[in-house]
Backbone:
């Protein structure tokens, strides 16, 4: 993945449009990383995925307790003590959503998943 520096921020440029069809949250991230075979632990229901990192990183995923079966989202920026996300299916419509912000210390966070 190519990361881009913008001032004091590192961001992940992504080729998706806000509101575009992205599918289920786990599948959206699997497709982005082409990770189905390389990361077999990152499969199934979001709530069943076990974190492999305690530290958030740009380009990694955050696993949350949100929704009835959990949720995963990709971290595009870390700004101050907040994660800026891109995700799919957060509202149950299988659409891509850019820019949701969640505090790093939110009790909604189960953990993080690194694809490195």
Residues:
């Amino acid at each position: 993945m190519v990361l881009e520096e913008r001032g004091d921020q590192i961001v992940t440029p992504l080729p998706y449009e806000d509101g575009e069809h992205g599918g289920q949250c786990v599948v959206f991230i699997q497709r982005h990383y082409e990770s189905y075979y390389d990361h077999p632990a990152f499969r199934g229901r979001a709530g069943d995925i076990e974190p492999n990192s305690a530290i958030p990183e740009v380009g990694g995923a955050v696993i949350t307790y949100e929704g009835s079966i959990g949720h995963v989202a990709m971290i595009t920026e870390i700004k101050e003590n907040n994660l800026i996300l891109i995700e799919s299916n957060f509202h149950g419509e299988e659409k891509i959503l850019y820019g949701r912000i969640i505090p790093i210390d939110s009790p909604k966070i189960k953990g993080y998943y690194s694809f490195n």
Q: What stands out?
A: The longest strand covers residues 71-79. The chain has one domain: 4-113.
